[in-house]
Amino acid sequence: MKINRTLYRIFLLASFLALNGLILFGISSAWTYLNTGADRTSMLHLHEDISATYLPKVQWEIAMNEGRPMEEQTLGEIERDYLSAWQVRNAAYANNVPYGIADYYTDSMRTELFKITDLNLKNKITLQTTTIEHHPKLEFYSTDGKLVVLTDKNVLAYEEVYQNENLITKRKLLSDYKVMLLLEDGFWRVRQLVETALPEETLEVASQIQNLDDYHFKGINYYPQDTPWDMFGSQFNDSIIEHDFKLMAKMGVNSLRIFIPYESFGKEYVDQKKIEKVKRTLDIAEKTGLDIMPTLFDFYGNYSIHDWTMTNRHVEQVVEALKDHNAIIAWDVKNEPDLDFESRGKERVLAWLEQTVDRIRKIDTKHAITIGWSSPEAAVNLTDKLDLVSFHYYRGAPEFESAFNILKSKVTDKPLLLQEYGYSSYDGIWNGFSGSDEKEKEYMGTIQKVVEKENLSHMIWTLYDFRNIPTSVVGRLPWRKVRQRHFGLLDDKGEKKPVYDIFFNENP
Amino acid sequence: MHILHICIILSLLFSGCSKETEVKKASSVNFKLLTSEENFTAGVPFSLKFSASEESSPVLVFRNAVGTTILDTSYSDGAVQFDVPKNFYEKSGICYWSLVSDAEEKIKGTLNIHVNNKNGTFLESYLGPRSLTAGPEDYAMFVMLATDFYDNPLNDSTSITSKIQFQESQSEEILSSKNLIAWTRVRSPEKSGRMLISAACNETDSKEFTTIIYAANPVDFTISYERNHEYADGNQVIKFKTDIIRDTYGNIASEGTLVYFIITDDKGAKLKAQGTTLNGKAEARLLHPEHQASWSVEAFVTGAARSKPIKVAFIASVTDYEVTFLDGNRTVSVGPLKSFMNQLVPDGMPISLSIKDVNGDVLDVLRTSSMQGEGKFELSPDFFPTGSYELKIKTAGITKTKSVELK
């Protein structure tokens, strides 16, 4: 009886406290909610920096124009507004809503655009368009500074035409335009846009691409042990890198694959400090006799046509800065882009890859270009665009030979590279203590037999067992993270794991 | 029986959920372009005809400089026909077409739509700047854009005439268009006035533009003055004026040109008066000084021109006056002040009295102005206790000093 009463008391007290707690929680949530949203400073309508979202390559041809000499300031304004004219036009045709057209086209010109958006709206036609290159040349600038004529030659554009949201056709376009712009209400507006004679076909430059047929990659996908997936961040330490590089060179490795992430390298405005770190890494590689294959666009996943001009600016700066370094052996455009086929659309991803390959080729005519496909099956994509066909393999070891042979039969004219493969020796609660160093050795041994039989170029994932895996790599789930930590040839103390002997048994 | 039903339902469910598999039909339809013409004229409707090897429904993707669209088929006597929409056949330039059937580009080509010169010409012209200064250094630019009826710019090397009228002279110049436009510089004449400019192309005339030619910068000029008398009475007004200000070419300076008159007196103090020109002449007025003075006057059009300095002398109008002390020297009466004809000076002549104590320290300066030729100061015992003071009276440039004992 007494126990019962005590229980009641406890229950009553507890429920009272819980109720109070709930009420307080409710009030505080309401309070927090009411305090979120608009910042107080937003009342002031302060100027916001709008970062450019359309940055095709623009190369002005500098020559004396007729009329008044051009001022640098005005030329910048003309370029800005002219590109905006293309951007709003592309956006208008993407959904047939002519938003912003009135700002960048004069009355008579905008009616012509409206006629097409109306027609396309009626017929449910949409266009995904972007211009990739502009080569404007100023022809005329009037004395009162209110009228310019320019020719824009070899405007390289890409266009996808959709009807009822089905892709009808996609193509690259090359055109020459004559453009007349008027300064109205502070905007340089397009008054006339005339396509002139068909552009001359540019002759294909004789290929100077380094032939990798006889180059045998015996490589490693490299991250420093303490900073995996953040090699060039604030903890960049060239003495660690030098140590690792010397170690690998001693092991008999001839090439490394490193990663250049898109966002943390500054997207379209590449962080030169990080580029300097990459250069230092390349210097060390050259000194130790290692060749480097940088993988670009790591962690990038947009691929949208509207993003092309931005990724192009990124790749241009990175490739331009590094292409002349002796340590570069090839460019890897993107790591495992085929994993984005489903979420982003295969066509879209392939179109992006194709044009990015073209972009790199335009800047660097020398080095081979590859894409790190996630499987041998995916590696048949875009083979004619690439100089080296790379694929990754993490599935069962016994099936490797057949999967590889299928690829080999399909790709006959390009060298192949097994760019990533490895096995996690993780042994713990998340896989029911089923892994072991011996299993790793066995797995790699099976694959290595095929690799050696075929004399296949290969790059192992990876040098070290890592201590920490960033969440952005495989997500938060602990069983994924721990697995990812144990792919190394050396364990987390830098000691050789059993698997090491498969590769480097000749070097004690 | 039940199991069979369940099986059927399950299989239906599964098939309903399964993704529609895309079957790519390898189409074998061949198309051939029947339209042989590749050059068309803007504004004239046309269509493209194709023959197809078998029944199919292709679409034609059609593009010009402005945009892209898709044309649907219409059939005519067995051929596949695409009618080019109005806004596309009205725009001159290069057009690209490609025939797509079953998601495959079958055949593609280009065609050229030429400018239509038949339906008349439109002429758009721009003139700027719209005002000039006289003389050959300054010019305006006249830009002409000739288009056909459908707003397509005429081909390069179209001749466009620009016409200029200025006073008695009329001139024409034949220009040839290049890069969409034709342009010319309109040099300013040496005379000021209104210049009319227009253009003509293929029997179409533009509207009339006016540019106003203003006089160029003025050149140095001379000034003079006018006054009622030469006495420094502090009451009359002296008028400074310029002669007609002109530019190098003899044009009268623009109305409203601001002229500053800077006056330096014999003590180095500066006075300033200003006026704007009317018919080239500017005037400015100043009050005569109250005491004898000698002025040096110079006029400026800021940044452009100046005059030669002139001298103006004023002689004293009041030669002497009396000071009387009343009420134990506490009331100081000045005057009567008499002018050059012994008339009382006009009201308002300033009079000042400065009071010093025995140590020579100035205690106060009292000011008043004359009324009926006289001025009066009251030295209150509240401020100035009994004692000896030195009083200094000053008016019309004449100073009188007196030591007094205030009671």
Explain what the structure shows:
Chain A: Belongs to the glycosyl hydrolase 5 (cellulase A) family. Chain A: InterPro entries: GH, GH2_Domain-Containing, Glyco_hydro_5, Glyco_hydro_5_CS. Chain A: This is Cellulase family glycosylhydrolase. Chain A: Keywords: Glycosidase, Hydrolase. The complex is a heterodimer of chains A (about 500) and B (about 400). Chain A has helices at about 1-35, 70-95, 100-105, 105-120, 240-250, 270-290, 310-320, 340-345, 345-365, 400-410, 435-455, 470-475, 480-485, 500-505, and strands at about 55-60, 65, 125-140, 145-165, 165-185, 185-195, 220, 255-260, 290-300, 330-335, 370-375, 390-395, 415-420, 455-460. Chain A has about 500 residues and is α/β, with parallel strands linked by helices. Chain A folds into 2 domains: about 55-195, Nuclear Transport Factor 2, Chain: A; about 220-505, TIM Barrel, CATH 3.20.20. Chain A is globular. With about 400 residues, chain B is mainly β. Chain B has 4 domains: about 30-115, Immunoglobulins (Immunoglobulin-like, Sandwich), CATH 2.60.40; about 120-215, Sandwich (Immunoglobulin-like); about 225-315, Immunoglobulins (Immunoglobulin-like, Sandwich), CATH 2.60.40.10; about 325-405, Immunoglobulins (Immunoglobulin-like, Sandwich). The interface of A and B includes residues 68, 119, 139 and 196 of A.
- Beta-strand content bin of chain B: over 45%
Helix content of chain B: under 10%
Mean of residue pLDDT of chain B?
87
Instruction: Just give the CATH class of the largest domain in chain B.
Output: Mainly Beta
CATH topology of the largest domain in chain A: TIM Barrel
Structural category of chain B is: mainly beta
| CATH fold description of the largest domain in chain B | Immunoglobulin-like
Per DSSP, the total helix count of chain A is 14
Structural class of chain A: alpha/beta
The helix/strand order of chain A is HEEHHHEEEEEHEHEHEHHEEHEHEHHH
InterPro entries (chain A): GH (IPR017853), GH2_Domain-Containing (IPR051913), Glyco_hydro_5 (IPR001547), Glyco_hydro_5_CS (IPR018087)
Organism (chain A): Zobellia barbeyronii
Family (chain A): Belongs to the glycosyl hydrolase 5 (cellulase A) family.
Domain Glycoside hydrolase family (chain A): 236-464
